[in-house]
Specification:
Layout lengths: L20 H6 L2 E4 L2 E4 L4 H10 L11 H23 L5 H12 L5 E6 L3 E6 L5 H19 L6 E3 L8 E3 L10 H22 L1
Antiparallel strand pairs: 1-2, 3-4, 5-6
Bound molecules: zinc ion.
Amino acid sequence: MRTVNAALTAPPPAPGSEQHVALDFANSDLALTAGRLDLLATPADATRWLVERGLAPVGAEVYEYCAGRLRDLRSHLRVLLAARVDGAVPPPEAVDALNSALAATSSAALLRWDEPHGPYRAPAHPVDQVAVHAMAVIAADAAELLTGPDAERLAACSASPCTRFLVRTHAARHWCSVRCGDRVRAARAYARRTKADATS
Ligand SMILES: [Zn+2]
C-alpha cells in the first residue's frame, strides 16, 4: 500500500542531513500532521531516494526485497539514534543490523567457470548490489555519527507528531525545521493562553 500522496510534502532536510546521509536516511520515515510519509515506501521511491543522494547510479533499479531491507535497516538505525539521544543502551539486534550492513561488501566478484566462457568473475547477486552498497555507506556514516563529535548534538525533533532526528546547530533548538518550530511556538502560545484563562 502506498502511503505517499500529493497532500504530503516533506519539510526541507533536517540540520545535519547534509553532513550525514545516515541522518537523512533515518528521517525518510516521516510523521507529518497530515499523516505518514515514507520516502522508501515502494521500490520506485527507494530507488529515487538512493539515486538523488548519489548512492545508486542513474538507471539503477531496487526491487521490493531490497527496499524492504532498506526499511529494516532504517528501523534499526532509528532505534540506535533514539538510544544515543536518550543516553540508553540499544537492543543488541539494532547494533547487529548496523554491523551486518557495515561489513557487507558488494565488490567481491566470484569466480565462475562454465562452457563456453571458461573462467570469469561475476557479482554474486547483481540485483542486490545497489542496496548492499548503499546500506554499507549509510551504516558507515551512522557509526561515524554515533561515535563522532556530532553525537553530542544529536536530538529528536520535539514538535509532535514529528519524529525526525537532527544535529542541533545551537543549544536551544530542538526542532528540525521552521515548520516544526512554528508548531512548537503555537503550542506554547496556546498553553499560555489556556493557563491565563484558567487563572483569570
Ligand atoms: Zn520536526
